[in-house]
Structure formats: structure tokens, C-alpha cells
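Re: that chain you flagged

S.,

Sorry for the slow reply, it's been a week of failed gels. I finally had a moment to sit down with the sequence you sent. For the record, here it is as I used it:
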Amino acid sequence: MDPINQAILGKLDQLDKRYIAIEEQIAQPDVVSNAQKLIPLTREQGKLRPMVEKYRQLRELLRQAEDSKAMSEDRSADPELRDMAREETETLTQNADKLLEEIKDRLVMAEDDAIDSVIFEIRAGTGGEEAALFARDLHNMYTRYADKMGWKVETMDYSTTDKGGFREIVLTVSGPGVWAHLGYESGGHRVQRVPETESQGRVHTSAATVAVLPEPEEVDIEIKPDDVIENVSCAGGPGGQNVNKVASAIRLEHIPTGIVVSMRDERSQHKNRAKAWRILRGRVFEFYQKKAQADRSQQRKTMIGSGDRSERIRTYNFPQNRLTDHRINLSLYSLDKIMMGEIDELIVALKDYDKQQRLENFTL
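Prediction finished late last night. Pasting the C-alpha cells below so you have them in one place:
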């Protein structure tokens, strides 16, 4: 058998054993009566169930195929029955192969598919006002795509320039498959075009950075209140006198990682605190995820690119109407449509490449 398929079946067998172990734990009286034990187990069981059910279907198909093959090779059997068994073996094997391919796709992408909310940060880089305008255009591109996908977009915080660009904007995007589709967008985005502010028609190069963070639920990551320093102050910036006089701005500092989050968008201190905690959880979760990835980098490669904000991943060349993704050497000559949110072709190409890389590294 193919080494990748052997590794996949081994992994599926581990998941099946874990599923059985969870069933046994949930049946214990001390677990049933303890919500802190029961809730994480039922959540894990729910995530495992679809994969385990597919695996058990696959096992049954393979068992039936073996039985049919044995009958087809039994020389004492009726020739007509042996012919029927051969046909049945072929059909069962084809069905098993098809199901295995489906399982492989789901298995290597299962964790991504399970994340249905992300924190999406866009910041202007080098290029002054033009970089801020490019950050605005990226924001528009992503929100149009999110709208087409039926996802919910919520603005958490933003800072604008005089000409309507974004120095930075922080969003949450939630909906089925959001991380699986948008998780590849982290990194440096470079634009080559004639800026709105350019009077002589010269092409300029500017940049913006994008960071996409899985938004964990509170049960996914525990942040001890004692590890966070909170400061409350009067919010500055636009919003009227109330924003300036009322102590509503929140600043959170996570001591173990040094991560700092400031939120001043809402007039309500309670709303700013809630938003700040959501972003803090996302950034701390990302911090520990990257640390875990670095710890196991010798054994297994991670997804396309490092996701580092300083890594240049893409160039948007407006004079040539071309978008180039440098990680997979893909160029698309439809930049006008892409900027309108038509990024499906790009995302499909990134996902397909990533799936293949993950499968190739599955045995490592």
C-alpha cells in the first residue's frame, strides 16, 4: 500500500480509539456530573464523529472487498458466482478508494475547517498615504468576498487618514470555512500602481500587511486574569465630547507574552473590554500556536509560507492587471476582478497546493 495511505489509515485508527475512549469516559458518573470535564469531552467527540463514521464505513467496504476477493479466488465455487464476486470486488474497491480520497482531504484540513471565526488585521506599510489607500482597497476586496460567502464581518477598531485610507483596521469575520479560505492571507502585500496622489503618472510601489488569526473560544485557550494588566483611560480621536470625557478606552497587557491590545472604538467601556479580550485571546492563541509549530518544525512542514507579517506573499501590479502569489508562483491577469472580491480562483489554488503539501508530509 502507498505510504501516505498507510499513514492515513494509522491516523484514522488512532482517532477511532480516541473516540471509543471518550465514549467510555462520558459514561462515567463522575464525568456526567462535572460540566468542566463533560463539555470538553463532548466537544472533542463532536469534532471526531464525522471522521470516525467515515473511517468505519471505509473499514466495512474494505472488509467486504476482501470477502468478495476470497470468493472470486475460490476454485471450488461455481464459476458464475466467482465472476459475480470479481465484479463486486471491483465495485467495492472503487468505492473504498473514493471514500479514502474524501477522508484524506477532510483529515489534513479538518482543523482548519473547524475554525469558523477569525480576527483579520490590515495595516498600511511603506508608502505613506498610498499604502493607507491600498490597505483600504484590500479591506474592500476582503469584505466583498466575505459578503459573497455569506460571512459576518464586524469592525473592531480602525484608524483612517485624511484621504480615506486606513492606517490600520481590525475586523472579525465569522462563518463556515472562514479560516480554511482566509488563513493564507497573512503576510506582506505589495502594490505597484499610479497613486491617486501622483500627478505625473509615475508608478509607485507601496505595501500593506495582513494578519489573520483564528479566533479561539474561551474553552480553547485559558488566559489567567492575574496574567493580564488592564488600564482604563479616556478615549481619544473622533467621536464627540463623550468619547474624550468618559473613561472608556481599554488597554490589556498579557504579561507572559508581552502582547498588548488597546481598544477605544466604542463609547462603552464594557464593549471595548469585550472587544479587547477577543483580540487578546486571538493573539495569544497565535503566539502559542507559532511556538508549537516551531517546536515541531523539524518533523513536519507548516502550511504555505510562515504567515509572518513581514513575509512578502503577493504583488498587485495594476498597470499589467496582474496579481502574483509568490508562494505558489501563480499569476492571474484579472486584477480588476480580484479587487472586486473575485478571489475564488486564487484561494482554490492555494488550498489545493496546501493539501498536497500536507499529504506529502503526513508520514513525517
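What I noticed first: Confidence is low (pLDDT under 50) at residues 238-244, 296-303.

Talk soon,
D.
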